Amino acid sequence: MTKLTDLTIAAALNGLNKGEFTSAELTRDHIGAVENARALNAFIVETPELAMEQATASDERRKSGRVGLLEGIPIAMKDLFCTKGVQTTAASKILKGFTPTYESTVSQNMLDQGMVMLGKVSLDEFAMGSANITSGYGNVISPWRANGDDKQRIPGGSSGGSSAAVSARIAMGATGTDTGGSIRQPASVTGIVGIKPTYGRCSRWGVVAFASSLDQAGPLARSVEDCAIMLQAMAGWDQKDSTSVNMPVPDFKAVLGQSIKGLKVGIPKEYRVDGMAPEIDKMWQQGIDWLKDAGAEIVDISLPHTKYALATYYILAPAECSSNLARYDGMRYGNRVEGKDLNETYELTRAAGFGDEVQRRILMGTYVLSAGYYDAYYLKAQKIRALIARDFTEAYKQVDVILTPTTPGSAFVIGEKQDDPLKMYLEDVFTVPVNLAGLPGMSLPAMLDDKGLPLGLQLIGRPFDEETLFKVGSVLEKAAGFTAKPDMGWVNAK
Ligand code: GLN
Known about the structure:
Elements: H1 9-18, H2 23-36, E1 43-46, H3 48-63, E2 74-78, H4 105-112, E3 116-121, H5 160-167, E4 173-178, H6 184-190, E5 193-196, E6 216-221, H7 224-234, E7 264-268, H8 278-293, E8 297-301, H9 309-324, H10 342-353, H11 356-369, H12 374-395, E9 401-405, E10 414-417, H13 421-425, H14 432-436, E11 441-448, E12 454-460, H15 466-480, H16 489-493
Parallel strand pairs: 2-3, 2-4, 7-8, 7-9
Antiparallel strand pairs: 1-3, 4-6, 5-6, 5-11, 9-12, 11-12
Helix pairs in contact: 2-3, 9-11, 9-12
Bound molecules: glutamine (GLN).
């Protein structure tokens, strides 16, 4: 029999429905798997007792015929979502010990649909990074290794605890957030599926803010269908977030497997960047061929302002973060380092509480917002953001969806790119334009590279057209037949 931890969410829901196993059994197996995989350092806090309580309650509900979308399914929660009574740190030392008295809307929606929470998974500090090495609680290690080398590799970032947990089969799905790529890039480098919905599709209420005009929550899971189920549970209008959009949430699962005959797929020429690994090009071509075979029409398009996207993002995101992170002053949350007066207390607290990358971003953000530089940097970046968004609007007059690679390469070794922030920022080259334009984007595994590491394809949709991503995603998923999974031998041996 298949191990319960190997099941997809859809298969587990089916098994639960048929009474083949209970949520308590499913949850117990996952708790065991979490314990066996501590070498990955994926969790900041494990909540096994809470999970068992929720699982037992879920089994009771099921008996009485009340079955939510995620009824009895063990999920890992990115530690950026505030969870009532469970420590929430954003992987920062400054929030150590902060236990929210409220639940984020997204996690509440999932609880209302029967989710079982296994614990809080790690991330880059305040979601700033692409490798999970800026976490204040130690880096997360990917369960994946390259052929013939035992070097530790990155699980991607910032949702690296989420991607490691899901690909290692210690959680059936996980929540993520994506400000510049933090759902799609970790999904891509660990061989799983992730979708960042349209800005406004999910509520940001109760999610620790990084860059408010870019942040969106979304799921990471092991199939397109599982992501559809999870997003269905997470999404929806919320009165408490004025940027969440009051639109009905469609039935995402309903479009899976539908024909894409005649669908127009855009291939942006600007995404063939210098220094892109040859395998990435090969994978992209393969993706194009798969879609052609399924009857889609391939259209070459141009997104002319793409080359400014990274620079624009790395002005706007730090600007917003410098403002959002001003609240961590040692007075209201988490850690405090006492100084001789209030100002010194602020300084000491923030110097001790924030890691290097977070401090770098606050400094950059404050600089681009300062008098004299505001027009030259911040305002200009806002204008370019509008042009980037316009590129997509123009493209969508010709095509229905856009296909690109998710990342410029596969998972690198922990420590690489660490001393060079600019190289690290390049990880986001294909993902940030999507956030700047507020569009939905999905990453799904396409193949392994010659090192045996996963590579992902990205689909970009029109605003609030996640359905097309699910539809095309399910076609690609079928064509790719990606079944590779990490060899957990080294993890469980520890
Ligand atoms: N890697 C990007 C950054 O460091 C994106 C992070 C994210 O999406 N949260 O800002």
